[in-house]
Specification:
Number of helices: 10
Largest sheet: 4 strands, antiparallel
Structural class: alpha+beta
Protein name: CRP-like cAMP-binding protein
CATH architecture of the largest domain: Sandwich
GO molecular function, one term: DNA-binding transcription factor activity
Strand order of the largest sheet: 2-6-4-5
Order of helices and strands: HHEEEEEHEEHHHEHHEEHH
InterPro entries: cNMP-bd_dom, cNMP-bd_dom_sf, Env_Response_Regulators, HTH_CRP, RmlC-like_jellyroll, WH_DNA-bd_sf
Distance between the termini: 14 Å
Organism: Sphaerotilus hippei
CATH superfamily of the largest domain: Jelly Rolls
Keywords: DNA-binding, Transcription, Transcription regulation
Number of strands: 10
C-alpha cells in the first residue's frame, strides 16, 4: 500500500496481510469541492477513504434545507451503511474541502468485513466514534451558541486537514450548520476581532488554535477524546 494511502488512518491500521489484499482494489480519486459522493436513499456503490479531503455528511429536509451531522477526513471512511447492513442512508455526503482519497467497491468492503475479524472490529470502532460525533453535533446545535458551534466545526475540520487554512464560503458554512448566512457572518467577525481567525475571500485561516479551544463548548473535546480512544494513531505492525 502506498504511503499516500497510509495517510488515511483506517487504511494505515489494517493488518499487513489485509493491506496487501486491499492494495490492487483501492482506486485513487480526486475529491472536488461540492462533489456529491452519495445521495439520500441511493444504494452505495463504493466507500471512500479521504486522505487530504474532508467530506460532510448532511441531512437534507424536504424543502432543501440541510444541516451537517458529521465530518469525515483522513481518520475515517464515507459509507458505513454498507457494512452495517443498510446499503443506503438518509443522509447526503458532500466534499467540504477538496483533496484526494481512495475508493473501494462496495462488494470488496463487505467481503473484507465479513471475512476478517480485525477489519470488522476496526470498522465498528470507527462507527462508534462517528456515532458519537453525530450525537454530540445534535446536542451542540440545540444547546450551544452559534460562535461555539463555529469553533467546534473549525476545530473538527482542522483535525482533518494538514494545514491551518480552510477554503469555505460563509454560505457553505451556513448550510453545514443549518443557520442563516448572517448568523455565520456575525460569529466569524466576532472570532476575527478576538484574533482567533482571519477570514477573507472564502478562506479561513486559524491564527490562535488554543484560543478556539478555550472558546468552544465541551462538544469538541468529547468527540476528539472518543476518536483518540477508539482509533489507532499509527499503522498496525
Amino acid at each position: 500500500m502506498t504511503s499516500d494511502a497510509i495517510s488515511n488512518q483506517l487504511l494505515a491500521a489494517l493488518p499487513p496481510p489485509e493491506r496487501v489484499r486491499w492494495q490492487p482494489r483501492l482506486e485513487p480519486v480526486d475529491l472536488v469541492l461540492g462533489q456529491v459522493l452519495y445521495e439520500s436513499g441511493v444504494a452505495l456503490g463504493h466507500v471512500y477513504f479521504p486522505t487530504t479531503a474532508i467530506v460532510s455528511l448532511l441531512y437534507v429536509m424536504e424543502d432543501g434545507a440541510s444541516a451537517e451531522i458529521a465530518v469525515v477526513g483522513h481518520e475515517g471512511l464515507v459509507g458505513i451503511s454498507l457494512f452495517m447492513g443498510g446499503e443506503s442512508t438518509p443522509s447526503r455526503a458532500v466534499v467540504q474541502s477538496a483533496g484526494q482519497g481512495y475508493r473501494l467497491k462496495a462488494a470488496d468492503l463487505k467481503e473484507a468485513f465479513n471475512r476478517s475479524g480485525p477489519v470488522m472490529h476496526l470498522l465498528l470502532r470507527y462507527t462508534q466514534a462517528l456515532i458519537t460525533q453525530m450525537a454530540q453535533t445534535a446536542v451542540c446545535n440545540r444547546h450551544h451558541t452559534l460562535d461555539q458551534q463555529l469553533c467546534r466545526w473549525l476545530l473538527l475540520s482542522l483535525d482533518r486537514l494538514q494545514g491551518s487554512e480552510l477554503v469555505m464560503t460563509q454560505e457553505l458554512i451556513a448550510n453545514m450548520l443549518g443557520v442563516r448566512r448572517e448568523g455565520v457572518t456575525e460569529a466569524a467577525l466576532k472570532l476575527q476581532k478576538l484574533g482567533l481567525i482571519r477570514y477573507a475571500r472564502g478562506r479561513i485561516s486559524v491564527l490562535d488554535r488554543p484560543g478556539l479551544e478555550d472558546r468552544t463548548c465541551e462538544c469538541y473535546a468529547v468527540v476528539k477524546k472518543e476518536y483518540d480512544r477508539l482509533l489507532p494513531d499509527r499503522p498496525a505492525t
